[in-house]
Fold this protein.
Amino acid sequence: MAENNESKEVLLHRLQVCDFILVELNEYLDTHPDDPEAIRSFEKHRAMREEAAEAYTKRYGPITIMDHSATSGNQWRWVDGPWPWDMDKEGV
Amino acid sequence: MWVYQKKLQYPIKITRPNPALAKVIISQFGGPDGEMGAATRYLSQRFSAPNNDMKGILTDIGTEELAHIEMVCTLIHQLTRNLSIDEIKKSGFDTYFVDHTTGLYPIAASGVPFSASTLQSTGDAIADLNEDLAAEQKARLTYDNILRLADDPDVRDVIKFLRAREIVHYQRFGEALRDVLDSLDSKNFYAFNPEFDKCRK
């Protein structure tokens, strides 16, 4: 159980890191649209982000409503906790 | 159109409740230079932006500010968990508690509720971008003041992240302002409203 929680934290952190890089590059590119190095970096981290998101959502549930893990059989999983501000043990 | 991502932009895990600190940090939720004002300002201003780069930067920074509202609220929520009435009384949190319990209400640390009178959307790109530059500096100095008041390293780590974003956004708005000024008509040397007033050819 503890090991699972740890993996969840690691996978979520990887996704947060990728998304942060993409936000930073997104805003930079808005005012520097002709920087090829930044565009290459955006494309590289977008691919990393897709991998990180798939690894996380498969095991630990949806990040957005479009993720397949939002539904499971007849179950609506989207509302399952923890929500991002939750602090309880299971809510890492 | 927005799509919610069920995660925080930056991890937050505050284990030590501190209602006095929460009462200070709440200014960055609903205070005069807080994240709610930032998101409202940029997401309103973008409709009169004169070029696509400015529409983009206001949309994307405005969207990031929505994520910062969520982060500031998470800090306050976690700092006010499992409080005893004694802790609430001693910390001075009682004046907030009486109206809102431990719910999140957009308010300044001084007790003034969030007001759109703290921001502008003028329909003038140069005026708006200068306001945005000032707003990022005011938010940065508010985070500096929070760092002067906060001892908890877990809280300080999150505040430092948010502070750094203000500095990056200041940089981006400076570049957007330079783009607008560079594209003014050569006759427009007083830099009046480039989207409403047109220079006579």
User: Anything to note?
Assistant: Chain B is about 60% helix and 0% strand.
